[in-house]
């Protein structure tokens, strides 16, 4: 939960009441095992350790990462990074080092707090056995300062219970009005579709089962709407369409899609000196309207809209909505395990991997990387170094075949992206 809610409970007369709140019934705890805890893409990875994907057993956060309590799930519909906290994956209190969990959460947020981000908290599964102690809440409150709060644009509490609602009511006097407006209750998973594509979230099986149970308990007349089915692509659709098909449609057989050319050309002219470029979200209405214009075959002129952040979000959204990531599923294992390649061989291996891409993927990647190198060349002004750009673009260049992205996979992907930017002159001669 956001640190705005983590107050010094030892000084609050309501502490005793909170300790008595019932979190979950025994029936609620008896859900099927979480079969989706690990993505298929990662279980197929070379050298995969079932206890902690991509983290060696002696890693300082091994015992935290293996539970997959905290995840990063790409970007939401507004171009903001999505951080997910899964309460149901927290083991009993005596089996989890909560201080280390807090440090792991801080380490995760440290990568993204300079950008706009969204926090999704799946509350189902928080029980009397695994709830953090009040001392942990006090510690968390002291650890999280303004930098973690400033750029969080929304906190979505999924499947809220009387416990969480009472908690917020009790602490209403100390929650700022501005932050209070960021808190949203989400009663059903289908409601998240307005915020993020649910298929990119690795939603735990107990949460999905609980959602089904809630739906089944309702009268037919009050059933919430299910997630809408995927509609067939429009004749001129460009978002969510394979690069190969976009190339075939192009009059000149251009390997680089028009969305990438339009956004990058505009950003090259207007965005190189904008501080925090690619870290800000854009007006959601304008994002949807721009996507619709592209999908309807219209020509889009970003120069007429004069909105750098809109163009930046459209570029990231286009990459994230590709049916297959730009770096392809075929290279997933090689990239996730790239850190095992000796440093003196990394450029050679990276060049070989990139050159194995389909032509349209290779040319689009080269076009993008060439532009991002221009962005980082102006990092003294725009604050976007190669490392910062890698954090933003890594998850938009590669993800697992089931759309899921575990936190432990993002580090290697971002590292590969950073090296690609650092060594672009050798990889793309």
Automatic annotation (TrEMBL):
Q: Where is this region: Disordered?
A: 32-52
Q: Tell me, what's a Pfam family for it?
A: CRAL_TRIO_2
Looking up Gene3D superfamilies in the UniProt record yields:
CRAL-TRIO lipid binding domain, Rho GTPase activation protein
Q: Which residues form the Rho-GAP domain?
A: 241-428
CRAL-TRIO domain: from which residue to which, for each copy? 60-215
SUPFAM superfamilies named among the record's database cross-references: CRAL/TRIO domain, GTPase activation domain, GAP
Known InterPro entries for this protein? CRAL-TRIO_dom, CRAL-TRIO_dom_sf, Rho_GTPase_activation_prot, RhoGAP_dom
Q: Which GO terms describe its molecular function?
A: GTPase activator activity
* GO annotation terms (biological process): negative regulation of endocytic recycling; small GTPase-mediated signal transduction
Question: What's in the GO CC field?
Answer: cytoplasm
Q: What is this protein called?
A: Rho GTPase-activating protein 1
